[in-house]
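Consider the following assembly input.
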Amino acid sequence: MRIVPAEEFDLKRESDYGTPEQNEAVKEIVRNVRREGDAALLRYTEQFDNTKLTASGLRVQHSELMAAYDEVEESFVTAIRSAAERIRSYHQKQKRSSWMDVQPDGSILGQIIRPLQRVGVYVPGGKAAYPSSVLMNVIPAQVAGVPEIVMVTPPATGGTEGINPYILVAAAEAGVTEIYRVGGAQAIAALAYGTASIAPVDKICGPGNIYVALAKREVYGAVNIDSIAGPSEIVVLADDSAEAAYAAADLLSQAEHDEMASAVLVTTSPALAKAVSAEVERQLELLPRRDIARASVDSYGAAIVARSMDEAISIVNKLAPEHLEIMTEDPMGILGRIENAGAIFLGPYSSEPVGDYFAGPNHIIPTNGTARFSSPVDLDDFIKKSSMIYYSKEALLRDGETIMELARREGLEGHARAIEIRLEQESQTGGNSK
Amino acid sequence: MRIVPAEEFDLKRESDYGTPEQNEAVKEIVRNVRREGDAALLRYTEQFDNTKLTASGLRVQHSELMAAYDEVEESFVTAIRSAAERIRSYHQKQKRSSWMDVQPDGSILGQIIRPLQRVGVYVPGGKAAYPSSVLMNVIPAQVAGVPEIVMVTPPATGGTEGINPYILVAAAEAGVTEIYRVGGAQAIAALAYGTASIAPVDKICGPGNIYVALAKREVYGAVNIDSIAGPSEIVVLADDSAEAAYAAADLLSQAEHDEMASAVLVTTSPALAKAVSAEVERQLELLPRRDIARASVDSYGAAIVARSMDEAISIVNKLAPEHLEIMTEDPMGILGRIENAGAIFLGPYSSEPVGDYFAGPNHIIPTNGTARFSSPVDLDDFIKKSSMIYYSKEALLRDGETIMELARREGLEGHARAIEIRLEQESQTGGNSK
């Protein structure tokens, strides 16, 4: 891994908005599903997933879900259950209540907080299945109280209708209420606009390939969508107290995700930079996914040597990484100075995979520097809020003139008159009495 | 206003994504401001706002702000101050704290909640100035603790550099920290990417014309943006206890905004539908903005007669209106059955303008049916959250195997090894001791 002085480092970031052809293809798929419903879904499933289904075969049956439990190891069920329990427990701490403010004049103001009614979660198909992502997308919705949580995932290619049993078990444990075997842009269109078989949702979450991402962009507005994730990132901020082998292993756990993943060490210690760099080389060669990790480390990895902890912290804040590990003598002393980071891991035992799978906080975290203004997925992503205004007669009589002054200043006489007509009528019918 | 039976009503909704030419123009402006900075800003300000500025003239001086107070009526300052105080007080009730969960094994999980660092607020120029929108955009940011709140607004056309003094006073009262006289897509580009004179922000809020809206879409990702508002909407849900004249006045206060605004009565009472419809006609003719209100009422207005309160409520939930007034005998009894509405006004004295200007809740509210999944502007729009994970050695030794099982199941051996290397090393250097 290359070692660079702080002043020479600039993080490469890439965004993928698709080619014009991909954009056009997605628009057409969405248009057709919107127009033709199930018929289009089935046609695209045959075309893209080599699977011939009937409309009644779209929905995964309860018996298939139960059968999935027989196909997976018991140790997996136990593991996913403990993870689900911890994730649920963390997200439960974010619960918020509707509130109201009862005022002395009899007015009541408030905010009503309610779960979304129906949420769709996309789960990619293909060889690699990520049950942990199912937990991280579904559990916050379920804890928020969303009554209908719909999962869509493509059928396994090659003519079988099957869905990865680990995904099915994770879905059942997380609290998914309906599952459909459909993927790609066509699944997103079905969730957004509905078909005879799939009722439309309020929000669509979950990762997918470029077609899925473009389709989410395309339907945004008709439904809400989560943010579209870029390649994964880790920054390890370390001083010379850090264990080089741990730092290297954690950097590699990020680099193995994706050739475009970024793993960066920021340190005040030139010796540590050297040691971590050497450890990265050593451990990298032993990884099954070494080709991916190598590409990531070579293109996006670096060990940055800062001249002071102040400079190191300011680099971290500029990078605004998705994951930040602080491996310094006193990590809590640095925490308060971190302005921008999606998830912050403190101390030698808080390895990033602890958070990816198990600790409780969500692993869906803003990438690409957007931690500057975005947040990890949490309950707030699955609620909606309504303001409530009950104004008393006393309050209206007191404030009416002021409201009319402001409305007239903006040239909105109709607004003023909506107040005026009440002031006039109420003074005719008994004046200031309540 | 036309009276329609429930089963025949369907709300027209329109979205404006601009023409291809407008989109291209905006892309070019953003590109040029990004590349040339202030030079492009000044050029576009001369071209679009007929105002020749120098870079040092972009920023509005403190003395100009003070002078604005001399240009407005004292009654306006008093009114805007009371409104600001109420809005501030309501938003303060939304304050949330960072929290942590200290676990028996010594681990600490938490969520750190912090304000955004720098926010940009767009304020449209033109003849109509809306000081109330300045309050509604700026106060939540200020209460959330955002230290830098930047306002941009175009200079008055016709060669003067002046800015509407009502806007300036509202900005000062709301807590804006910097003001620049620049508007249009060029202002949005400057806020997103920064120029020598204007430092970039984390989020851009505020309404604007189609060029501003397209520019916000264009820069989204580099910065966050608020949602893009559609035409304003009101639904009045009423039974025969409602005062027809009040309902009509409130419907018209919405209709006068915009020819595309929508004002709809939903009632169980055919007699009230008739009375409100007649009152709308009568009051409409007296309004200064009667042409706009007429166009809105004719195209988007209706009095819908439902066969039961259940049906009426279900229509409201389907419409998911920006503003909902409930004028029934027992409005609180209906509140809990309203699933989708941005702001809910209860009883005869809670006229919508009370909320537009004064009561406290925000008047920036989801339009176009998006109350199904979006919320009025509040403090949540101006914060970012970071997850915090401090895992103890004890916890890692306990959970390490489970985490490795989950990582290996997903084929991410590098993740497993980041845990394994710690388990091995810690057992060599003293096993289970903390």
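DSSP finds 16 helices and 14 strands in chain A. Ask yourself how this observation constrains the way the partners meet.
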